[in-house]
Amino acid sequence: MPKTGMRCIRRQQFIDAATTVILQDGLAGVSNARVASVAGLSPSLLPHYFSDRTLLLDAVLRQILRRCHTNAIEVVNKHAGPLDRLHTLIDTHFRDDLFTPEMKRLCRDMHHATYQSNPLKSTYRAYQRHLLSVVRSQLRHLIKVRSLNAASVGFIALLDGLWMKALNEPVLLHQADAASLQKQYLRMITTRIRVKAGDRLG
Is 183 in contact with 158 (CB distance < 8 Å)? Predict the structure, then answer.
């Protein structure tokens, strides 16, 4: 009989191996044989943990997004003010370690995969909802309630678009410039909406 907890260990080994394969070779390199080889396990074991390629990729995506979300929340919570927290949230999305050649390939391929698979699309949308919740919780201190939903959705939409542009076309938009544009949008909505609402700017 397998040892207690061994299933979780084997699952994690396959997830980590699949991530390594995507980092090195892209999605095209993800095969049972290649993933098992990197994991140092038999290819015959993989179907017992992931019955098809989509489930394995979904597990990889969930792990990436979970780590991104956890990292963002930990960094954001170190700041007291809502504006500082949103600036930090922006910076975490455009930090240098996400834009190495290997990470760019991983992020680009996994983002593309979300458009090819409903399970992956659902996972990514859940992450976006979590992120939207974080943004709303901070923006609510900076703008009127009636403008909160539109401003929050706009923030997330622009963040996603700028991130993809910086990822795919760095010659046209460097990640630092993308972060600056996102902060300009934040400044615009927290200033213009408050002015329109008749608030006194601090």
Answer: no
